[in-house]
Each structure stands twice: as structure tokens, then as C-alpha cells.
Design goal:
Layout: H1 10-23, E1 28-35, E2 41-47, E3 55-61, H2 69-82, H3 90-93, E4 95-100, H4 105-112, H5 167-179, E5 183-191, E6 195-198, H6 210-228, E7 233-236, H7 237-241, H8 248-255, E8 260-266, H9 281-300
Parallel strand pairs: 3-4, 3-5, 5-8, 6-7
Antiparallel strand pairs: 1-2, 2-4, 6-8
Bound molecules: N~2~-sulfamoyl-L-arginine and zinc ion.
N~2~-sulfamoyl-L-arginine binds near residues 137, 197, 247 and 249.
GO molecular function: metallocarboxypeptidase activity; zinc ion binding
Cofactor: Zn(2+)
Keywords: Carboxypeptidase, Disulfide bond, Hydrolase, Metal-binding, Metalloprotease, Protease, Signal, Zinc
Length: about 300
């Protein structure tokens, strides 16, 4: 199993996923959403006590390769829901969870490789020229390529040759669409900056129901910060970070119709940035879990 005192590479994460599914077959089902460009599997876990028509939460991590705290949190979320089910059964009894821990397995692997790059962000699919990779979080088909991304293949925010040109983005799209009618919340976990972000990222305009998204985010951040004082800022992506189109959260809301779509930028605020020391994994996970619980409580009542 994982212990969250160090960061885990892709094989360790997949071993954890398969082990937890084998140990708790009554709570966890693992299926494949497909393969990445380089042939890595892209599993999704359904955590559920069965039944039908339950509200769902869809959570994913690892869309940006270098943001190691993201899969580290998402795997923790899985562990908390499953291994610690008895401590708070309501979160699984009343909600179906769909969780994808690593949306960019090729990039993630590259950040662990001695011949790779610890700070790689994009996927690892080749382009027409020498530069490899598309920013998967600019490749979604909601106001794709309308600002805050680049057509330059070498760029860090290269949006790809077309919306959903990348197989990893298509895999998560299809997984989301297949459960969108029951899904109330979409979570995309990233780092860093300590922001709890709402749509939109493609425009500075607010969603019609922004107040609903803001209010729930505020309740979540209140509990998160109460743990040990870590401040988080709430607002839309455009207004806090600047324009960025083709992101998964905008597509989740505007394309898949999931009302509460959040991108959570976890620790820190830049001292270590993407290279958050492993001795902060636990504290990060404990506080973010408090926020996620608040959202889960709300989902039960939706
Ligand atoms: O730019 C991004 O993709 C995210 N920030 S990160 O530093 N982790 O790369 C923020 C995405 C926020 N959502 C939208 N802009 N829609
Ligand atoms: Zn990111």
C-alpha cells in the first residue's frame, strides 16, 4: 500500500488501485477508460455500495505531470473512502464516487524518469515538429482555443491540433459523459497556489449560478483552513489566474452539464511550488479532505 510519506510513481499507484479493489470488492470496482498515447492504462475507480440513482462525485488528478501532490491526494481520497469507510459510511452509502488518479500517466512517468524532466507538464504525444506534448488542460472542447492557450507546439499550454485531439482527454471525456446525469460535482486536483477555483476560465464573466458554486466553496474552504490555518482563495479561474480556455473544469460544467465544477490548486503558494516536500503530503491531504467532506455533505442533499 501507499503511505503518503513519499511520492509514488505510476506502478506503485496502479498497484495500490488494484490492491484496494481486490481487498474491498463490495465497495470498489476498477475499470479501464482506455490507454494513454504510450499505452499506459487509465483506470477509473467506482466507489459505491450499490443501488441506483445516487448522486455522484467525479474526481480526477494528475492531468499535469509535475503536480505530484495531485495523485498523492486523490489516492488518499480513495483510501479514506474505502479503507476508512466505517468511520464515515455516509459518504459512500449516499454517494457514488468516480475517481481517476492519474489523467496524464505518460507525463507523470516522465517526471519520475532520470532521463526525463521533473517539471514536465504536458502529455508525451509527439507533435509535427521537434516538441513533444499537448497541455491536456487546454484540449477540452468548450470554447477551445479562445485565449490563454497557445498554438505553438513547444509551448507549455499548447492546446493541441483540435479540441479533444488527445486520447487522454477523450478517455476522461467519455468516462464523464457516461455518468454525467448523476454527477453533481466535478473535482480537478492540481497544484499550486491554494486556490479553490470555479468556472469560467475562458471568460471573465461569471456563471449564472456562480453564487451557488461560491457558497459551497466557501463552506469547504472554511473547514479546510480550520485544520491548521492554510489560507485558500476562492474565485473564478479567469479572475484569479487569468484567461485559460479548453480546461477540463469549463468542459465539465459547460459541456457535460455538471453544475459544481471545481479546480483545486493545493499547496503551496510558491516556496516549493510543484516540488512540494513529501513531508507536507499528509498535512495537505488532511486539510483538503476536510473540504471535500463538506462538498460531499452537500451532495447528499442535492
Ligand atoms: O492553468 C491551468 O491549467 C491550471 N493551473 S496550473 O498551475 N495547475 O496549471 C488552472 C486551470 C483553471 N481552470 C480554468 N482556467 N478553466
Ligand atoms: Zn495543473
Amino acid at each position: 500500500s501507499l503511505d503518503w510519506t513519499s511520492y509514488s510513481d505510476l506502478p506503485a499507484i496502479y498497484e495500490f488501485v488494484n490492491e484496494i479493489a481486490a481487498t474491498y470488492p463490495n465497495l470498489v470496482t476498477v475499470t479501464s477508460t482506455g490507454q494513454s498515447y504510450l499505452g499506459n492504462d487509465m483506470p477509473i475507480l467506482k466507489i459505491s455500495t450499490g443501488g441506483s440513482g445516487k448522486n455522484a462525485i467525479f474526481a480526477e488528478g494528475g492531468i499535469h505531470a509535475r503536480e505530484w501532490i495531485s495523485p498523492a491526494f486523490v489516492t488518499w481520497l480513495i483510501r479514506e473512502l474505502v479503507e476508512n469507510y466505517a468511520a464515515h459510511p455516509q459518504y459512500v452509502d449516499n454517494i457514488d464516487w468516480y475517481i481517476m488518479p492519474v489523467l496524464n500517466p505518460d507525463g507523470y512517468t516522465y517526471t519520475f524518469s532520470p532521463t526525463g524532466d521533473r517539471l514536465w507538464r504536458k502529455n508525451r504525444a509527439p507533435n509535427s515538429g521537434v516538441c513533444v506534448g499537448t497541455d491536456l488542460n487546454r484540449n477540452f472542447d468548450y470554447y477551445w482555443n479562445t485565449g490563454g492557450s497557445t498554438s505553438i507546439e513547444c509551448g507549455e499550454t499548447y492546446h493541441g491540433g483540435a479540441a479533444f485531439s488527445q486520447v487522454e482527454a477523450r478517455n476522461v471525456r467519455d468516462a464523464m459523459l457516461s455518468v454525467a446525469n448523476q454527477t453533481k460535482v466535478y473535482f480537478s486536483f492540481h497544484s499550486y497556489g491554494q486556490y479553490w477555483l470555479t468556472p469560467w476560465g475562458y471568460t471573465s464573466a461569471l456563471p449564472d449560478d456562480y453564487q451557488d458554486l461560491y457558497d459551497l466553496a466557501q463552506s469547504a474552504v472554511d473547514k479546510l483552513t480550520a485544520v491548521e490555518g492554510t489560507p485558500y482563495t476562492i474565485g473564478t479561474s479567469t479572475n484569479l489566474l487569468g484567461l485559460a480556455s479548453g480546461c477540463s473544469d469549463d468542459w465539465a460544467k459547460g459541456g457535460a452539464g455538471i453544475k459544481y465544477s471545481y479546480t483545486v490548486e493545493m499547496r503551496d503558494t510558491g516556496r516549493f511550488g510543484f516540488q512540494l516536500p513529501a513531508d507536507q503530503i499528509l498535512a495537505n491531504n488532511l486539510e483538503v479532505w476536510e473540504g471535500v467532506k463538506v462538498v460531499a455533505e452537500a451532495v447528499m442533499l442535492m
